């Protein structure tokens, strides 16, 4: 068990040392690489910048698009 405590404390130290600039760089790399993959896949309808930002935010935050509504009321097994 002491190995897990040591690993956890080391992880906590590393997480505290992460800078906002690093997190922003990771965010930009993720966003741009996702956009590039969509463009390479031939999805021209969502490759525009304004549409892409909408789809990126909704997908990355897992909010959902709302196009599959519930068919049954909650608890109606």
List keywords for this structure.
single chain; 77 residues; mainly alpha; 3 helices; 62% helix; membrane
Tell me the number of helical segments per DSSP (H or I, 4 or more residues long): 3
Main sheet attributes: strand count, strand direction, barrel closure: none
State the secondary-structure class: mainly alpha
Task: Give the low-pLDDT segments.
Answer: none
What level of helicity do the residues show? 55-70%
Shape field: flat
Tell me the fraction of residues in β-strands, as a range.
under 5%
Average pLDDT metric: 79
Q: What would you note in describing this structure?
A:
There is one protein chain. The chain is mainly α and 77 residues long. The chain has a domain at 19-64. Helix content is 62%, strand content 0%.
Task: Describe the structure in brief.
The protein is an all-alpha fold and 77 residues long.
């Amino acid at each position: 068990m002491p190995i897990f405590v040591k690993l956890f404390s080391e992880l906590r130290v590393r997480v505290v040392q992460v800078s906002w600039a690093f997190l922003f760089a990771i965010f930009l790399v993720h966003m741009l690489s996702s956009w590039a993959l969509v463009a390479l896949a031939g999805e021209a309808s969502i490759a525009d910048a304004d549409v892409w930002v909408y789809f990126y935010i909704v997908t990355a935050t897992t909010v959902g698009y709302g196009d599959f509504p519930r068919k049954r009321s909650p608890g109606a097994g």
